[in-house]
Amino acid sequence: MSVPVIDVRGLAYAYPDGTQVLYGVDLHIHAGERVALLGPNGAGKTTLVLHLNGILLPGAGSVAVSGLNVEKRNFLEIRRRVGIVFQDPDDQLFSATVRDDVAFGPANLGLRGDALERRVQHALEEVGMAEYADHPPHHLSFGQRRRVAVATVLAMEPQILVLDEPSSNLDPMARRELADIVRSLSVTVLMVTHDLPYALELCPRSVVLADGVVAADSDTRKLLSDEDFMRAHRLELPFGFDPRTV
């Protein structure tokens, strides 16, 4: 079998105040997969994600991306390979125009001129925002800003796209538009979400974190249909939603 693009082995982590969050996580994701990372608040999802591009470093165990260990000497390449789209797009948008925001990352890697413009144009086209290139980000709707935030990451041509609560605060139309974009991408996707119907719609596979360990790694529909497991791990489907009939 090929080398996983995300290869987490025995990952343990405690914050400086001594709070232990991860207790030995194993996670292996292969190229092209779309995987949902589920679990209640405090399960360790965000802490795990922050290890994927070196924002945090393991207390024990290891994290590798496409065979490259996540460690300080590899940060530049790791952060090109792994793009994280945070829950609030305003955490990623700070320039005068959409074009400038999307160009920021590749320009820092040394891309210039026509090559940079082509990269920006392609990323904006992937998220359906090319016509807004000269708009100030703060004039866009929340859903449009989220799509631009995705474009800022896609402009780096990552191998892995990590989406943190991508459907939060989106109206139904923006939610559907983003789902269509995610399905169209050729990158590996790891989606951190409490939106279980969205996980079912977009991710054939789901991993559940609970108390700092992997409690389940399974087919999303099968997992969401296990009422006893869902109840035990504080996972709640919307009223009337039956994953077996969707």
TrEMBL record:
PROSITE patterns recorded: ABC_TRANSPORTER_1, ABC_TRANSPORTER_2
Membrane topology reported for the UniProt record: Peripheral membrane protein
Keywords, ordered alphabetically: ATP-binding, Cell membrane, Membrane, Nucleotide-binding, Translocase, Transport
CDD domains in the record: ABC_cobalt_CbiO_domain1 (cd03225)
Keyword Oxidoreductase: no
Gene Ontology cellular-component terms listed: ATP-binding cassette (ABC) transporter complex
InterPro entries listed in its UniProt record: AAA+_ATPase (IPR003593), ABC_transporter-like_ATP-bd (IPR003439), ABC_transporter-like_CS (IPR017871), ABC_transpr_CbiO/EcfA_su (IPR015856), Co_trans_ATP-bd (IPR005876), ECF_ABC_transporter_ATP-bd (IPR050095), P-loop_NTPase (IPR027417)
Compartments, record wording: Cell membrane
One of the GO biological process terms: cobalt ion transport
Keyword ATP-binding attributed: yes
Gene Ontology terms, MF aspect: ATP binding; ATP hydrolysis activity; ATPase-coupled transmembrane transporter activity
Function: Probably part of an ABC transporter complex. Responsible for energy coupling to the transport system. Part of an ABC transporter complex. Responsible for energy coupling to the transport system.
Protein family membership: Belongs to the ABC transporter superfamily.
Protein name as it appears in the record: ABC transporter ATP-binding protein
Originating species: Mumia zhuanghuii
